[in-house]
Design a protein that fits this description.
- The chain is of the alpha/beta class.
- Helix content is 46%, strand content 12%.
- The chain is built from nine helices and six strands.
- It has helices at 21-34, 41-59, 63-77, 84-97, 108-115, 129-139, 156-166, 180-190, 226-231, and strands at 8-11, 120-126, 147-151, 173-177, 193-196, 217-219.
- α1 packs antiparallel against α4 and α2 (41-59) packs across α3 (63-77).
- The longest helix is centred in the first third of the chain and has 19 residues, at 41-59.
- The relative contact order is 0.18.
Length: 235
């Protein structure tokens, strides 16, 4: 393994290994329907996104913060007149979101199976601790990973710490994920390889420009291309 360009491979979880954003979209659609008497659907979504953005520093990433942002948005749009039945329904759809089924994305299991035992595999995900643990357990993919890191955010400092803890530093590590902002750009900034696997429903707050000039940036259409990418990687 010492002669390989990478010895540690990190994987994002939500919308990289399993579906996630589609459930948020369904919940947002339900939320919009609850406020049809007060505002147009697009306006509701716009106000919700603004609430999510300003609340990230307070609540972090995940379903609980999303639910609180929906409640806050409902109160803002109705000028504090949202009936208790609407607030109760928001809490209910938030709870439903916490129990949605886990649907692995195509090729996820095959990719992990091809790498397990040959590389040190780390799941690196952000969000609510209990929810991420639940999804990992229900996915059936947990046994493939040598370590799991559930973090509050993903920055270059985060990747330096994780890849230093579990391997020989970021220079011999790779991060694979669907978010350019969280999975790819900061991993490359830390000195690791960053592999972008696009997902059609990636959250808008995770969108940034591709670092196409970066020597360690790679893009693949799906996880089925991971084994060949790793096998053909040049230092």
């Amino acid at each position: 393994m010492s002669n390989r360009p990478v010895s540690v491979i990190g994987f994002d979880a939500d919308d990289t290994l399993w579906q996630n954003e589609q459930y948020y979209k369904l919940t947002e659609g339900h939320f919009r329907s609850l406020l049809t008497d007060y505002a147009e659907g697009d306006h509701v979504s716009e106000r919700l996104l603004k609430a999510e953005k300003r609340n990230l520093a307070h609540y972090g990433f995940g379903i609980k913060g999303f639910t609180l942002s929906m409640i806050e948005t409902a109160l803002e749009i109705t000028e504090g007149r949202a009936p208790s039945s609407v607030i109760s329904e928001i809490l209910a759809i938030g709870r439903d979101l916490l129990s949605h089924p886990v649907e692995c994305l195509p090729h996820a299991r095959e990719a992990l199976d091809s790498l397990a035992g040959k590389f040190f595999l780390v799941l690196i995900t952000k969000g609510d601790l209990f929810d991420q643990e639940r999804k990992l357990a229900q996915s059936g993919l947990g046994d493939y990973f040598d370590a799991v890191e559930i973090v509050s955010d993903k920055t270059a400092t985060t990747y330096r710490r994780i890849f230093g803890k579990h391997g020989e530093g970021p220079e011999r590590s790779m991060m694979i994920g669907n978010s350019l902002k969280s999975d790819v750009v900061p991993a490359i900034a830390a000195g690791a390889w960053g592999v972008f696997v696009p997902h059609e429903l990636t959250w808008v707050l995770e969108h940034v420009e591709k670092p196409e000039e970066a020597p360690r940036f790679r893009e693949i259409p799906d996880l089925g291309h991971v084994p060949d990418l790793v096998a053909n990687l040049q230092p």
